[in-house]
Write a structure and sequence with these properties.
Rossmann fold, Arc Repressor Mutant, subunit A, 2 domains, five-stranded parallel sheet, four-stranded antiparallel sheet
């Protein structure tokens, strides 16, 4: 799949990984800009305004989690983490900071490219839904405009947070299983990554529920999935 005019910033202190990833993505028609340190990477990202960022969280100068948070202050572009750390706690920390995806080293280039294309496709398709408006509690979700308000005030959601909410809204009052939500929001490769859901459902509850510890609308169906209730 060719991806003309797609800009990627790749931040990794391993020159071999940068070389192979850049060569592979360049063959796909992408423009790839490399950085060996976090500060160089943030500078490249601020200059290039990439369509997608790839970052190793273990960097020589700054903490990769802090880099993700800094990037998220001004960009909603997809962010994929590459890391040799494979504990669930490490993945949750990166997702909580604002990462969209997490790929453990060593990884295969075909899988990385598949994930990149999946994120770029979803990004291109966002906003293509009809002008449906759904309300629950004091929340109003304008699907056609990709806009959410709470008591009339804008609610700022990340790209993944909005995508998850939109999926729940489109299936309001229906049980959405873990696998269904993971496939719809992150893609088939993540169908078993339930910790992704726990993190992002927690984010939505913090932003939308009156009491996130006792949710009224985003309900857990134990061992199965989630259900959005109280819509009108």
């Amino acid at each position: 799949m060719r991806s003309p005019n797609t800009t990627v910033v790749l931040i990794d202190d391993d020159a071999c990984i940068r070389h192979f990833v850049r060569a592979s993505l360049t063959d796909e028609g992408m423009a790839v800009f490399e950085a060996a340190t976090g500060m160089q990477g943030l500078s490249e990202a601020a200059t290039r305004r990439p369509d997608l960022l790839i970052v190793d969280v273990h960097l020589p100068d700054i903490d990769g989690i802090e880099l993700i948070r800094e990037f998220r202050r001004w960009s909603t572009s997809p962010l994929i983490v590459l890391s040799s750390m494979d504990r669930e706690a490490d993945k949750v920390a990166a997702l909580n900071a604002g990462a969209d995806d997490y790929l453990t080293k060593p990884f295969g280039l075909p899988e990385l490219k598949a994930r990149i294309h999946a994120h770029l496709r979803r990004q291109a398709c966002e906003g293509a839904t009809g002008a449906t408006t759904i309300c629950f509690g004091s929340i109003v979700v304008h699907l056609g405009e990709r806009r959410v308000t709470r008591e009339g005030r804008p609610v700022h959601l990340s790209r993944i947070e909005y995508r998850l909410l939109a999926e729940l809204v489109r299936h309001a009052n229906q049980l959405m299983t873990h696998d269904e939500l993971l496939r719809a929001v992150w893609g088939p490769a993540h169908a078993k990554d339930h910790h992704y859901l726990r993190v992002y459902v927690g984010h939505l509850r913090q932003r939308l529920e009156r009491d996130p510890t006792h949710p009224e609308h985003i309900i857990t169906e134990a061992g199965t999935g989630y259900r959005l209730v109280g819509t009108r």
